[in-house]
Specification:
This protein is low in regular secondary structure. It contains two helices and two strands.
Amino acid sequence: AISRALGNDVDKTDSSHFGNLKGIFEKSIAVNKKLKKGSVIRFEDLEAKKPKGYGIDASKFREVIGKKTNVDLDKWEFLSLKNIDNK
């Protein structure tokens, strides 16, 4: 069985047929505590939550660290570009 499996290569780089699943299992950034307007976003303030598409993709968390909020955010609220200063 092992030699038969080794003889059937699988292209793991092509994930195009998993598009629907990627949307379900990938995540968006949310804040894990209340943040007041003007708070500087730290790594410790962030949480990755399902589903993807509710604001900023979780894979881009480095881009929001150090930015300031421009509105009050509630705990577990998804973070979007309109909620942070882009300076």
